[in-house]
User: What shape does this take?
Amino acid sequence: MKSKKKKRKIRYDRILIFLVIVIFIVISFTFLFNLKISNIYILNNSFLTDQEIIEMAGISDYPETLKNLSVQIEDRLKNNIYIKEAKVYKKGLTKVYIDVVENKPLFYYESSKKTILTDGRETDEKFVVPTVINYITDNYYDAFINEMANIDENILKRISEIQFSPNDVDDNRFLLTMTDGNYVYVNISTFNKLNKYISIIEELPNKNGILYLDYGNNFEIIE
Assistant: This one.
């Protein structure tokens, strides 16, 4: 007795559902792949402008977000001499937040004809920063950079020139010429006193003079 072969009924409804799912996935991936960055937020910058950082990040034209992953943007920023650290994260895929630690210019070093940055690197670009007019010996140069990096920006802007000025008593003494007409002596261990410069000057006579912050807070009026 011959067995009858059962014909399998094609379920067109299942095929349709499968095709709809595939089309939906393709459309979704296409949409996401072409989704562009909509907003960029820059955090903790003071020396660099928002636009400068956006250009360094390579996203000034608000490109596709999936072609510009956070780690890729971070790498571009870290490759720039003026960025020490960068943390990039996104919200809702299209909103980009860039948190930076800047590598700021500290002073122009006359001896090398270079601008020195916070991490000690050099650049040929010139900025409105204090000028170190003479050579600083190697044993104090790195310490000097570290101390300068800890000076408040408002105080740094008040310094016009810096001279390495050791004497028989103190071999790491510096003379600072201020934009307000005063002069200040400091050394490596007293550099941090400069952050109190404004409050110190407010308590002194309204005359130009020499402020000795290397030892004490003595002030000598210049007649």
Observations:
- The domain at 33-102 is CATH 3.10.20.310 (Ubiquitin-like (UB roll)).
- The mean pLDDT is 90.
